[in-house]
Amino acid sequence: MLRGLSAEHRSWPLASPFRISRGVKHSAEVVMVEIAQDGCRGRGESVPYARYGETVESVLQQIEDVRTALAQGASRAQLATLLPAGAARNAVDAALWDLDAQLAGTSVWSLLRLAPPQVLTTALTVSLDTPERMGEAAARLASARLVKAKVDASAPVAQIEAVRRAVPDARLIVDPNESWNIDLLRELQPALASFNVSLVEQPLPAADDDALEGFEPAVPICADESCHVAADLPRLRGRYQAVNIKLDKTGGLTEALALRAAARASGFQVMVGCMVCSSLGVAPAFLVARGADFVDLDGPLWLKADHDGGVRSHNGALQPAVAGFWGQAEDLAGADAAVGAR
């Protein structure tokens, strides 16, 4: 067995700027991997993330470093010993799952004995801005069932109030992206409860997790930057009530499924999220997100243009990509399409 490997940087312009407390994005900078074997090919995508010390160049180099092992047939299990959890491993892991489905003439979900991807209710994100502009942005999402507000420490009550006023009936996630401290978090508990916030995502810097020990929040707190893999869970008990599973943090679908199972067993609520990416980046996440307490997979919806056949959304009802886009053998996808046409 000899495999071919290609890895390249792709840039996807955004339809509008995406702002969080750490900065602003105008494009999604991703790494796309293709692995070919016996006339089949598997694809995967990841987002190198500066917060975790990654760049496009460093991720491409990590993939190059394992080229020989992959060419010689390294498995997904072996991949976990070759690359650390992160963007490089995610792209390769996704490509290997896709390739295995192609070679077997089946689908990734069949290999995993899971149900096919289904329509999910995803959060729609209001990016950080002035309270007035956040309210205007939220008003455009008035029919959404789940909304996430990106906030910071400058005017969090006004930011949350503006969004809540515009979407009075939606479940609301508040995401400070590590910009708060424990004193501000304590001070904001009455406001978070009064605005009927459902979840607060990573309010403190991950390095300050100790401050959450024994803290009893009015609203559940979700670990994002503090939780990457299943081995992180023991130190999160007593500090967080939920964890955000992202493929780019876990290093792919393989570890994401392990983290989900371990989180459920440990009593954590489960959120499944993504970076700002294309539909190829979120396709495997559909298999993790089924049954999650919160789903936040609107990354591709920020793009000016996406892959043909990618995910589609109507008021936050996120439809998976077309059959055969990722994770399903081409012959099987063609048969499914023919059945649907009859």
From TrEMBL:
Its EC number is 5.1.1.-. Keywords: Isomerase, Magnesium, Metal-binding. It holds the Pfam family MR_MLE_C. Transmembrane segments: none annotated. The keyword tRNA processing does not apply. InterPro entries: DgoD-like (IPR034593), Dipeptide_epimerase (IPR034603), Enolase-like_C_sf (IPR036849), Enolase-like_N (IPR029017), Enolase_C-like (IPR029065), Mandel_Rmase/mucon_lact_enz_CS (IPR018110), Mandelate_racemase_C (IPR013342), Mandelate_racemase_N_dom (IPR013341). Residues 131-222 form the Mandelate racemase/muconate lactonizing enzyme C-terminal domain. Its cofactor is Mg(2+). Binds 1 Mg(2+) ion per subunit. The keyword Magnesium applies. It comes from the Bacteria. NCBIfam families: PRK15129.1, racemase_DgcA. Belongs to the mandelate racemase/muconate lactonizing enzyme family. This is Dipeptide epimerase. It comes from Luteimonas lutimaris. The lineage of its organism: Bacteria, Pseudomonadati, Pseudomonadota, Gammaproteobacteria, Lysobacterales.
